Amino acid sequence: NAGVTQTPKFQVLKTGQSMTLQCAQDMNHEYMSWYRQDPGMGLRLIHYSVGAGITDQGEVPNGYNVSRSTTEDFPLRLLSAAPSQTSVYFCASSYRPTYSQHNSPLHFGNGTRLTVT
Amino acid sequence: GQQVMQIPQYQHVQEGEDFTTYCNSSTTLSNIQWYKQRPGGHPVFLIQLVKSGEVKKQKRLTFQFGEAKKNSSLHITATQTTDVGTYFCAAIDMRFGAGTRLTVKP
């Protein structure tokens, strides 16, 4: 199993450009999520999905869109990149949704380092 | 969401010293998870605590969940250079604390 695969690993964008960060998992996990990590800020939840066709906003959703057409894929779209979106982005998945008492561990991808100039 | 506060933000220790990081919430937590992120890497799951007063050990790491389920701690005995990284706690809604960055001086 490859686990959670994120592409690209690195990306440089100019302000105003759009792009899609790809995330795929081969563990048949229902729950998937996107985080951004900035120095001193920990991991902040952007969007998440509890299953195909279902998405919801996290803590910092503005400027990002997601969709979940299949169980395996959960792309993150930056509509019009801004320097404030310079960050490391992590995709994660888990077997169970996170609302039950026995939520299962998150499996993270290796991350995408995005710079917006 | 269940916001968790984590302290300290940074900790520098001499190899062999102990280390503790704390995770605190103003509300009762259903459960709490701990993750470790090595420099340049991604977070990796360490453990989940569910029961009030629960204590779990993994070799030199001891995890505790408070009796009121509002706080948790991770204690490392006799740190090693392999313990370097950032330790995060996460609440049930998968919102993470800001993390504690541990550096170990050989």
Task: Describe, in plain words, how this protein is organized in 3D.
The complex is a heterodimer of chains A (117) and B (106). Chain A has strands at residues 4-7, 10-13, 19-25, 31-38, 42-51, 54-57, 64-66, 76-78, 87-94, 107-108, 112-116. The radius of gyration of chain A is 13 Å and the shape is globular. In chain A, 0% of the residues lie in helices and 50% in strands. Chain A contains no helices and eleven strands. Chain A starts with a strand and ends with a strand. Chain B is 0% helix and 52% strand. Chain B has strands at 4-7, 10-14, 19-25, 32-37, 44-49, 55-58, 61-65, 71-76, 85-90, 100-105. In chain B, the strands form two sheets. In chain B, strands 1-3-8-7-6 form a five-stranded antiparallel β-sheet, with no helix packed on it. A five-stranded mixed β-sheet of chain B has the order 2-10-9-4-5, with no helix packed on it. Chain B starts with a strand and ends with a strand. At the A-B interface, β5 and β10 of A face β5 of B.
Keywords for this entry:
heterodimer, A: 117 residues, mainly beta, seven-stranded mixed sheet, four-stranded antiparallel sheet, 11 strands, globular, B: 106 residues, five-stranded antiparallel sheet, five-stranded mixed sheet, 10 strands
What's the N-to-C terminus distance of chain A?
A: 36 Å
Counted beta strands of chain B: 10
Helix content of chain A: under 10%
- Spatial ordering of strands, largest sheet of chain B: 1-3-8-7-6
